[in-house]
Amino acid sequence: MSKILTKPDPKRASKLNAFDRLLTIMDELRENCPWDKKQTMETLRHLTIEETYELGDAILENDLEEVKKELGDLMLHMIFYARIGSEKGAFDVADVLNEVCEKLIRRHPHIYGDTKAEDEQAVKENWEKIKLKEKGNKSVLGGVPTSLPAMVKAMRIQEKARGAGFDWEKKEQVWEKVEEEMNEFMAEFNLEDENQIDREKAQNEFGDLLFSLINYSRFIDINPEEALERTNKKFIKRFNYLESESKKDGKTLSEMTLEEMDKYWNEAKSL
């Protein structure tokens, strides 16, 4: 039984009505719209991934109006998958929602049971232990999806290893590892004589360096994926300024020197 008393939600009825409205519209579209009738889970998959990235962009831009819109798009996709599952006789939206509710209750024994978890880390560790038992994985890392992008996968691997107690104790130790990997890479591959390097070995060493940096970011509570995406956006903004302002001055990037480009770049940095 829950250890907390949930306050009544005065808007619960309107929320349920809105959800019911979406279910009704989905049924109508699936039965009457030529495009919606043709869709399968496979055809929707890449669209769902695209919508997820669009939501991520809106969150990074702190555009709450756009976040609302993208959440709606993703909610539609979830309902669409549930409708297709129902047609296959596999599951319906009630099955989906009840299953996630049951999972949340199982994985929060500090709320719905007698387990104690005094801080966030304890909650994470309990979550991973319960998840490992549920899925029957032979390895702690067995639950990391193989299709995740490499940076996100590295984060999940490190988080799961930490949940099993395999982790550094202090961030200083992690930074020492970063420096060690950097020095190893520089010593072997930062060559001044332009000699051919062993590309495979260089790639492996560079991967080790990236992995250690991602590990350090975890210790200082920085999401490396978000940090890199913010830098991407910053670079695009400054490069667009370089292009537009140099064009106003009658210049062409391909004919400009790096020194000339740096003038516009530094202007963009000050904006």
What does this entry look like structurally?
The protein has 271 residues and is an all-alpha fold. The chain has 3 domains: 18-93, Orthogonal Bundle (Helix Hairpins), CATH 1.10.287.1080; 143-225, Orthogonal Bundle (Helix Hairpins), CATH 1.10.287.1080; 226-269. The chain has helices at 12-32, 34-38, 41-60, 64-87, 93-106, 109-112, 120-135, 150-163, 171-189, 199-219, 224-248, 258-269. α1 (12-32) crosses α4, α3 (41-60) packs antiparallel against α4 and α9 (171-189) packs antiparallel against α10 (199-219). The longest helix is centred in the C-terminal third of the chain and has 25 residues, at 224-248. The relative contact order is 0.05.
- Total strand count, please? 0
Radius of gyration: 25 Å
Question: What portion of residues belong to β-strands?
Answer: under 5%
Residue windows where pLDDT falls under 50 for at least 5 positions: none
Give the overall shape: extended
Report the average pLDDT across residues: 90
What level of helicity do the residues show?
Answer: over 70%
CATH-defined superfamily of the largest domain: MazG-like
Domain tally? 3
CATH topology of the largest domain: Helix Hairpins
Tell me, what is the CATH class of the largest domain? Mainly Alpha
The main pleated sheet reads as: none
* Element-level helix/strand string: HHHHHHHHHHHH
- The CATH level-2 architecture of the largest domain is identified as Orthogonal Bundle
Distance linking N and C termini: 55 Å
- Based on secondary structure, the structural category is mainly alpha
Q: Helical element count? A: 12
